C-alpha cells in the first residue's frame, strides 16, 4: 500500500540474540510513526498495524525480542492508548507467547503511565517480559542490537 510506504521504516530487523541463532531482534521506532494530525491517520495506522503483523510473522520463527525506541518521537506521532490496546488484542497468540522480552528505550513518564493503565487488559506474564531502558548504551549491554537498526533521531535524543 502506498499510504504506508513512508512509514515502513517504523519496523526493522535488529539482528539475532546469538550469532547463528533464530531468535530475532525486532526494532520498532516510534519516531517514524505518522503524525496524529493527518486526516487519514486511523486509516494509515490500521494499515500500518497489518504491515507490522505481517512482517513479524515473517521474521519470527522462534522466540523474539522487541525493542521499542521511544526517544526521538513527538507527542503528535505516539499512538493513542485505545489503538495500542486494540493492537495488542488483535495480535496473534503465537506472537504474544513467543515474545521473550520487550525493551522500552527512553521511556517517558507519559509512556510509563500508559503502560501502567494497560495493566488490566494484558496478561500477567507480559509484565515479567517488560524492561525499561534509559539509554542506548544500556540497551547495547542487554541486547546485541545492530546499531544500523537505530534511527539517527533516536541516537540524537540519546546524546542529549
UniProtKB/TrEMBL annotation:
Q: Where in the cell is it found?
A: Cytoplasm
CRAL-TRIO domain mapped to chain residues: 1-160
Keywords tagged on the record: Cytoplasm, Hydrolase, Manganese, Metal-binding
Q: Which Gene3D superfamilies match?
A: CRAL-TRIO lipid binding domain
Q: Which domain of life is it from?
A: Eukaryota
Which Pfam families did the record assign?
CRAL_TRIO_2
Which Gene Ontology terms of cellular component type are present?
Answer: cytoplasm
Q: What is this protein called?
A: CRAL-TRIO domain-containing protein
Specify the taxonomic lineage: Eukaryota, Metazoa, Ecdysozoa, Arthropoda, Hexapoda
